[in-house]
Specification:
Keywords: Signal. The protein contains one helix and four strands; from the N terminus they run αββββ. By secondary structure, it is α+β, with helices and mostly antiparallel strands. The chain has a domain of 59 residues: Ribbon (Laminin). The termini are far apart.
Amino acid sequence: MKFLVFCIVLSVFVTLVFSQTEKQCPANSHQGCAPCCPDPTCSNRKPGCPDKICTGECKYKCRCDEGFIYNNVGDCVRPDACPNA
């Protein structure tokens, strides 16, 4: 019985550790907490913030580095590299 409890606790621990490991982010981006408000994109440079309650929970995702925004395929580019910049 103790062995079964040990295996369950170990599997929960391993799952938590591996779910929080650092992701490999593409060029011009880094790992960070997902924002409550949308990030700017080439097609929407100043997105509004939806009327929703933001929690303090951090959901990790790749985010564009400062000075970069998402293009239409989700890559982080400088704003002057956007179509119709």
